[in-house]
Specification:
Elements lengths: L1 H16 L26 E6 L5 H8 L10 E3 L5 E3 L14 E2 L2 E2 L5 E6 L9 H18 L6 E3 H4 L13 H6 L18 H8 L6 H12 L13 H21 L2
Parallel strand pairs: 1-6, 1-7, 2-6
Antiparallel strand pairs: 2-3, 4-5
Length: about 250
C-alpha cells in the first residue's frame, strides 16, 4: 500500500509539472511538446522617471495591484536598485506605445524607473548605478545601442519623461543610445517628418513626435515644448537617421 501511494504521488507530481495544452483559437488542436525553444529576450530598454519626491512613494505605486503599473527596475537617487518584475515577464510600464512601427513595447522591453520628480537634475550616484545596469542588460540581451529610449519617445502624445535634465549624451557615449557630436548640415530637400519616422517615431501625432525629439536630442534653443525643429535640430536628426541605418547594415550584412 505505501509503495502504491508513492507511485500515485509521483504520477500526480508529473501531471502537475506537465505543460498545459495551449489556448488555441477555438479550433481542435493536439499538443506535442518540442524541446526546441528558449525564453524570449527583450530588445529595448525604456527609461522613465517616477515624478515622485522619494523612492518609497514610487515603490508603493509600482507594487499596488490597483494601479496596474510596474517596471522591471527602480533606481533610487542614492543609486540603490530594486528589481520589481522578472526580466522574462512583461511589465506594465510603456502602455500604448510605438517605435519603428512596432506597437506594444511592453512585450519587447525592459522598463527602468528613475526616482526623479521631473524638475531636478538626475543624481550622479543614480546615473552611475544606471550605467552599470544598462551595461549588464546590453551584454546579456545584445540590445542595439539605438534601442535605449525614453518613455516620451515611444509614447510622445502621453508622456514627457525622462525630462530635459536627463543626460542622454552621456549614455550614448557609453553605448546606450545614439548621438551625433558634430552634426553635418541637412541636405536640401530633407523632410524632417520622414526623418522622425525613419528614426522610429510614430507620425500619428507629428507635433508630439517633434517635441519628444527636441527633449531627447534637441540642439536649438527655445521652448522645449515647441514642435518646430530648427536648423541644428534637423542636422542632428539627419545625422541620427544615418547612424541608425549604418548600425542596422552592420548588424545585418
Amino acid at each position: 500500500m505505501p509503495s502504491r501511494l508513492v507511485v500515485l504521488c509521483a504520477l500526480a507530481l508529473l501531471a502537475a509539472c506537465a505543460p498545459m495544452a495551449p489556448q488555441g483559437p477555438g479550433v481542435p488542436v493536439s499538443w506535442q511538446p518540442s524541446p526546441n525553444f528558449d525564453e524570449r529576450r527583450p530588445n529595448f530598454v525604456i527609461l522613465h522617471q517616477t515624478t515622485n519626491d522619494d523612492a518609497e512613494r514610487a515603490l508603493r505605486t509600482l507594487t499596488d495591484p490597483l494601479k496596474k503599473v510596474s517596471a522591471h527596475y527602480l533606481v533610487g537617487r542614492d543609486g540603490a536598485i530594486v528589481q520589481l518584475v522578472d526580466e522574462r515577464a512583461r511589465a506594465w510600464h510603456a502602455g500604448e506605445s510605438s517605435w519603428g512601427g512596432m506597437a506594444d513595447l511592453n512585450s519587447a522591453s525592459i522598463g527602468i524607473e528613475l526616482d526623479n520628480n521631473g524638475e531636478e537634475p538626475f543624481a550622479p550616484a543614480q546615473i552611475a548605478a544606471l550605467l552599470d545596469l544598462l551595461a549588464d542588460l546590453k551584454t546579456r540581451y545584445r540590445i542595439p545601442a539605438a534601442n535605449f529610449l525614453g518613455h516620451g519617445d515611444v509614447a510622445p502624445r502621453r508622456k514627457v519623461d525622462p525630462s530635459r535634465h536627463f543626460p542622454w549624451k552621456l549614455l550614448a557615449e557609453r553605448g546606450f543610445g545614439l548621438w551625433c557630436e558634430a552634426s553635418p548640415p541637412e541636405p536640401p530637400g530633407f523632410d524632417a517628418r520622414l526623418g522622425l519616422q525613419a528614426l522610429g517615431y510614430s507620425l500619428e501625432d507629428a507635433d508630439a513626435a517633434a517635441r519628444a525629439f527636441r527633449r531627447h536630442w534637441g540642439r536649438d534653443a527655445g521652448d522645449e515644448e515647441t514642435a518646430e525643429l530648427g536648423a541644428a535640430d534637423k542636422a542632428m536628426l539627419y545625422c541620427l537617421v544615418g547612424r541608425k541605418a549604418g548600425a542596422e547594415v552592420r548588424r545585418n550584412p
